[in-house]
Amino acid sequence: MNVDxxxxxxxxxxxxxxxxxxxxxASGHTVxxxxxxxxxxxxxxxxxxxxxxxxxxxxxxRVVAGTASPLEYWMYExxxxxxxxxxxxxxxxxxxxxxxxxxxxxALSPKQLARYADALGLSVEALKxxx
Length: 131
What we know:
It is a single chain. The chain has helices spanning 39-65, 70-77, 82-89, 93-99, 102-106, 110-120, 124-127; strands at residues 19-24, 30-35. The chain starts with 18 loop residues before the first strand and ends with a helix. A hairpin with a 5-residue loop joins strand 1 (19-24) and strand 2 (30-35). It is mainly alpha-helical. This is XRE family transcriptional regulator. It comes from Variovorax rhizosphaerae.
């Protein structure tokens, strides 16, 4: 993409901020150019965030029904999935999936709860309950 083709339409999801994009200048060199984003990017980002909000609300309903642990709600509320929570908490993915079940979550040690709380940016007490 050439420098003059870098999108500047504006993107509400960037909240007035700009992001760097790579473009080719007149002499053919790759340079960074600030971009205000474009409409297509805003639409896709909005749909993705809406899907994450829906996942969090579905998880909340499962927690209230007793079929999921609060960890599942917080994972989605913090815009994570099993793979990302696994990576940030240091637990294997199969263990994270297991801890999404209420009986296994209830058996977690304080040290394990602290790892999840740290990864999610919560206190241990907040992790154990819904907001």
